[in-house]
């Protein structure tokens, strides 16, 4: 207990070194953990949400935007395509499933997706409560939405036009909750699922009101002949379709075909450079913090060698002197490491909440305990080396010479 008190007293006596050591080590830990968490979030989004989607067909534009909007639901769509044109593509003998999705509305920032019953199978989603959609204006909620908004079976709500929450452009048709999915840890947890007819009906009424306001006659048959969807999610029976169909669609139609895995791998290549640079910076800061800790320990030993020698004359062993230094160092390192973890978690959530307007659609993946242990092991290994190098003067200390010299 007395050794601990001596160590704490040493920490208090050199507040400047202590604060700099804690700050630099916490900063490097934050950057290293933050980068790992961002990588894990990206890889999880890719691997967990696109495994059953080989191709996305949508309006011409950026293929990456089409993938981000239709698969990960993290961007605005490139536009709409005609439903009849999409159905023709889905009839190909090379295609196993072709699932249409249509969106453009939200409820409190959560995207409402009109689709077919096969959509849930892309994410292995099963019902926790209620039933699937049987008719227009019914919805099934993803797990996170039901939990965050405290919605239950039988509840009703009004959707808003657009993908961001607003109170200015609210539709007049009520949607009724008929089911809630179990948690999947996939993007469907943060989606509101309905059928295509619900989307068409809401926007049909909107168009109808617009035409009536202009004094024009609205023909319902014309509307139905021009049904539109946002995109088509395709799964192939064999790699043959993957090799031939995208090129054919891009060349011969007014639509575009994008391959989710290819586009997201390409995105990862671009972002990977940034990850590497930040990681290098983090390791440089880590080395600097380790050097500061080493200098701090060594300086403390040199400055207090008289008192350390005095301890030896009162019966303290080299091991006990080492304990004083070790307790001091590991106290600083533990505080810095825990602070780094807190800064990494808090920083990422703050960054996503501020910079990502569509935050509800993004789930930050937590690191496994092994990730923390790996970095913790690296930190403590370097610190142990610093301690062992710094205590060399203690091991070689001549007690009588030190005491007489100081006198």
Automatic annotation (TrEMBL):
Protein's UniProt keywords contain Magnesium: no
Domain MacB-like periplasmic core: 18-199
Domain ABC3 transporter permease C-terminal: 280-398
Superkingdom, natural source: Bacteria
Subcellular localization: Cell membrane
Organism: Wenyingzhuangia heitensis
Protein name: ABC transport system permease protein
Membrane topology: Multi-pass membrane protein
Pfam families assigned to the protein according to its UniProt record, in alphabetical order: FtsX, MacB_PCD
InterPro entries: ABC-4/HrtB_transporter, ABC3_permease_C, MacB_PCD
Keywords: Cell membrane, Membrane, Transmembrane, Transmembrane helix
TM region positions: 16-35, 270-294, 306-326, 332-352, 372-395
Main location: membrane
